[in-house]
Specification:
Low-confidence stretches: none
Number of strands: 0
Radius of gyration: 24 Å
Helix content: over 70%
Largest sheet: none
Oligomer: single chain
Shape: globular
Number of helices: 22
Order of helices and strands: HHHHHHHHHHHHHHHHHHHHHH
Distance between the termini: 27 Å
Structural class: mainly alpha
Length: 548
């Protein structure tokens, strides 16, 4: 097999495609953690990283609301419809989408470039004038990334149609590789501008890696530009509800960034670092299971086979709970070790930075299960062709989160019961300013509210499955998770009594031993209580190992 043949390989089964995407997500998110670790090693949690992360907000907003929020969700089915009519129609539609989308992104980016100083002033009210000027300049440089990623998203839709998941799965990996290269090679030459150049390089790689497979599929660009085309109008109308929901999420991040800039230097970095670690299981488990279940839920509901819809919902719900619950407990118990290993290896990330980031991660751990369920619950609504309910609930959640964050920041600004509880629970004695913890706490509470509301409004479709078997399965997972927690905590205490935990190797050894012991305890207990998810997982694993 030649390199070209390998690169353009088509996945023949859904299982293989899903496995490839999960592997890609795992590698990409692991590289994302490495990226943050390198940032921490070089800059710590201070002014430079705060500026860099704040500069991300505007380019991310443009890309997130227009591409990830809307167009990427509706391009594939519409491309399929046109391509089914004829290849020529499919390629014409694609060229028109590419051209209209690129111009729209160019206009939005140009406006953002022009008004960057005013937008940055809104996003970072706590920054000094000099810091805001640097953030605005870095933002302008990074505005190249949504242009490249917008083109790349259309390429991705085409590759999905042709089953060429290999090139698509490499794109997010190379995006992080580009940013890492910027940190390692460009920052020593250009300072903070090397970070921006790394982002642009990553976006270029994200797009370029898909070009050979797209061209191999037969695509030929043509200079069509008809924004009044009925297909274009239909696509934007279909994308509108998703765009609104995505916009609300990005507004939420912008407001949280603004609030963090008002707290203390390093608060933006601490919040983002902890959020990236907690999102690892959400993206890997929650989003992956949601994407895998979506076609089955959609087909069942379209055929009016409510029983199959309910069974697919219950199975996926139990599986997400089974995999995420133990991870959430491990995140809480191993929060300090995780942060020290990822971010605390260098001398720029101080001990107080480590403690605050670990505390933020510990708070996030309480909401990981709910955050992992939200993508699945939302897609269950999408399968019923109801996009309004999850959009309204999302808007409410964002508004609730912002109001709650402001309230909690003010509450933690003065001595009181809430601050005392957080200091005692998360071992923060000696740190005077813990206001940054208001941000993850508000996100956890609003995320819980969002998941619960989605479940309540979805109950009319799945009420019949809320029976003894479901509750029994969840209870068995909970019991096994308690066993994991007890064993993990016991190993942590025993190990800490033997070693001083002053070296990287000692902390790594504690994390590996405690996590492995906890996972083994979880598996053993799940077997003992005959958890259906554990038995199914074991049966599937044996089938892979022995070819059955």
């Amino acid at each position: 097999m030649t390199f070209s043949q390998f690169f353009n390989i088509q996945t023949k089964t859904i299982a293989f495609a899903a496995g490839l995407l999960v592997l890609s997500s795992l590698v990409s998110r692991a590289l994302g953690i490495v990226r943050n670790g390198l940032l921490s090693w070089r800059f710590g949690a201070g002014e430079t990283t705060d500026i860099y992360l704040a500069a991300f907000r505007i380019p991310d907003f443009i890309y997130g609301i227009l591409i990830m929020g809307g167009i990427s969700a509706v391009f594939l089915p519409m491309f399929s419809e046109h391509f089914h009519t004829s290849r020529e129609e499919g390629w014409k539609f694609t060229s028109n989408v590419l051209n209209v989308l690129f111009l729209l992104l160019l206009v939005l980016s140009a406006l953002a470039f022009l008004f960057a100083p005013f937008l940055v002033e809104f996003i970072t009210p706590g920054f000094t004038t000099e810091q805001q000027e640097t953030t605005a300049s870095l933002t302008r440089l990074m505005l190249l990334s949504p242009l490249l990623l917008g083109v790349s998203s259309v390429f991705s839709g085409m590759l999905h149609y042709f089953g060429k998941f290999l090139a698509y799965s490499l794109a997010p990996i190379l995006y992080n590789v580009g940013i890492i290269a910027g940190i390692v090679f460009l920052v020593p030459l250009f300072g903070i501008w090397g970070l921006g150049l790394g982002v642009v390089t990553g976006a270029l790689l994200h797009s370029a890696v898909q070009v050979p497979a797209v061209l191999h599929s037969g695509f030929k660009w043509s200079p069509l530009f008809d924004w009044r085309d009925q297909a274009m109008k239909k696509m934007f109308l279909l994308a509108l509800p998703r765009t609104i929901a995505a916009a609300s999420l990005h507004v939420n991040l912008v407001v949280l960034t603004a609030l963090a800039s008002l707290i203390a230097t390093g608060s933006i970095t601490i919040f983002n670092y902890a959020n990236d670690v907690q999102y690892f299981p959400i993206g890997l488990i929650g989003v992956s299971f949601a994407m895998a279940a979506f076609p089955s839920l959609s087909r069942s509901f379209a055929k009016k086979n409510i029983k199959d819809f309910q069974e697919a919902f219950a199975t996926t719900f139990r599986q997400i709970f089974f995999f995420v619950m133990p991870v959430a407990i491990l995140l809480f118990l191993l929060r300090a070790q995780s942060v020290r290993l990822v971010y605390g290896a260098g001398d720029k990330f101080t001990w107080d930075d480590t403690r605050l980031t670990a505390a933020a991660l510990g708070i996030f751990a309480f909401g990981v299960l709910f955050q992992a369920l939200i993508p699945f619950l939302a897609r269950a609504f999408f399968a019923t062709k109801d996009t309004k309910a999850p959009t309204v609930i999302s808007l409410f959640s964002v508004a609730f989160n912002i109001v709650l964050a402001v309230f909690l920041i003010r509450t933690l600004a003065v001595p009181g019961a809430l601050g005392d509880v957080l200091v005692a629970l998360l071992k923060l004695e000696g740190i005077e300013d813990i206001r940054v913890l208001a941000l993850p706490l508000a996100l956890v509470i609003s995320g819980m509210a969002q998941a619960i509301l989605l479940g309540i409004f979805l109950a009319k479709y799945v009420r019949e499955i809320l029976q003894k078997d479901l509750y029994l399965s969840l209870a068995k997972t909970a019991v096994a998770s308690v066993a994991l927690g007890i064993v993990t905590y016991g190993i942590l205490r025993l190990y800490g009594g033997v070693f001083f935990l002053t070296t990287y190797e000692e902390v790594l050894g504690q994390l590996l031993l405690a996590s492995m012991g906890g996972i083994l305890a979880f598996a053993a207990c799940a077997f003992l209580v005959k958890s259906p998810e554990m038995l199914y997982f074991w049966k599937a694993l044996k089938g892979k190992l022995y070819g059955r």
